[in-house]
Design brief:
two-stranded antiparallel ribbon; elongated; 8 helices; 2 domains; mainly alpha
């Protein structure tokens, strides 16, 4: 932090620097971290925007794969990083948690959403808690996939392999996507009730909310856009087939007509 040039006051400190520095994000860190190493910068989120701060350190040597390896080693070393008050919090943030600090324009009581995210992190909601809270979500997804496959095989005599492919991320059946969205939505609603009853935002299940946002987006996209496009594609294909059949019929009539005696 002392190596940065022209850093505004209170942008980074030993408590929040892993949250605000996007190089420490478990997923985005491989992008921003390598970028910073190649350019001798530090990319942070401050005042609702992403800024690239200059550093006195020179860019690191090595190709992209070598820098990715260094980045992986650095992230692994920070997973269990202790805080000033002991080994609780201040490790790696949960995925995309730093980016959420850009939402400072969303009011939350007397504060805003970005500051609430930082409060969560400073008080212990880091990558370790994210992993622990992800366990129930992982169990839920495994059970949903198992029940879906069993249902497809028993009720519709679908092959096991085909039923499994319907639940895979790249080949996911829209119906199963909707099931996931509803399941995560229910989980997030229950989690909202828990936070309200306990009056403790630390009870938030970040994994559940991420799952609801991701699957909910794709489910809505299918229901409002992709489904309609698929319907019109099918109608278009059917009409083109009918037109081609009519053209073929006209061509045959034309051939027959040319063979008539004049």
């Amino acid at each position: 932090m002392t190596d940065l040039i022209g850093v505004p006051a209170k942008v980074l400190n030993p408590i929040n620097h892993r949250l605000r520095s996007l190089a420490h994000d478990p997923i985005l860190g491989f992008l921003f971290g390598v970028w910073d190493m190649m350019n001798g910068t530090c990319t942070v989120v401050t005042n609702g925007e992403i800024r690239s701060l200059r550093s006195t350190k020179n860019p690191m040597e090595g190709n992209v794969f070598q820098l990715l390896g260094r980045m992986l080693g650095h992230l692994l070393s920070d997973v269990n990083a202790p805080s000033a008050k002991g080994n609780r919090g201040m490790g790696l943030p949960a995925p995309f948690m730093g980016i959420l600090r850009m939402c400072e324009g969303i009011p939350v009581g007397d504060s805003n959403f970005g500051k609430q995210v930082e409060w969560l992190y400073v008080n212990g909601y880091d990558f370790r808690q994210f992993v622990v809270s992800s366990v129930p979500m992982a169990i839920m997804e495994v059970l949903l996939r198992a029940f879906y496959v069993i249902k497809q095989m028993k009720l519709y005599d679908a092959p096991f392999g085909e039923s499994m492919l319907d639940t895979m991320p790249t080949k996911m059946n829209p119906r199963f996507r909707i099931i996931l969205a509803l399941s995560y939505g229910t989980s997030s609603a229950v989690n909202t009730g828990k936070m309200y009853v306990t009056q403790n935002i630390m009870n938030a299940n970040y994994a559940s909310w991420m799952g609801m946002a991701w699957n909910g987006f794709h489910a809505l996209k299918w229901a409002l856009l992709d489904r309609q496009l698929k319907l019109w594609d099918e109608i278009e294909a059917k009409e083109i087939e009918e037109i081609e059949g009519l053209i073929g019929h006209l061509d045959r009539l034309s051939i027959r007509a040319s063979q008539l005696p004049t």
